[in-house]
User: What shape does this take?
Amino acid sequence: MKILIVDDSLIIRKVLKNILKEKKVSESDMFDAPDGQAALEILNSHDIGLLLVDWNMPKLNGLELVKIVRKIEKYQSLPIIMITSEAAKYNVLEAVKAGVSDYIIKPVSGVTVLQKLKQYL
Assistant: This one.
């Protein structure tokens, strides 16, 4: 399964890749993007099976990305996990309404991420 990590923080992208490696996900099955616009290019050229996305990013934020992805027929049932510092209840509800499958609030721990990923990997 190919996984796309979308976060404007290179450190967060590396942390998430290391967590995925613990689940035996190969480096060649991981893609990353610094914003939603770059993520759309990857989604259009690869068959992604799981999307991990931050909310706050330049160019195209995570919520906008989720709304666009949900309109693409082949990605209507794609598991999308939002990993963000947006912790307010209305943010979570807005993300779920947009089509997010799961929500993790930063700062993340490897245990939390692995627990959420278990059902999708």
The chain is about 40% helix and 20% strand.
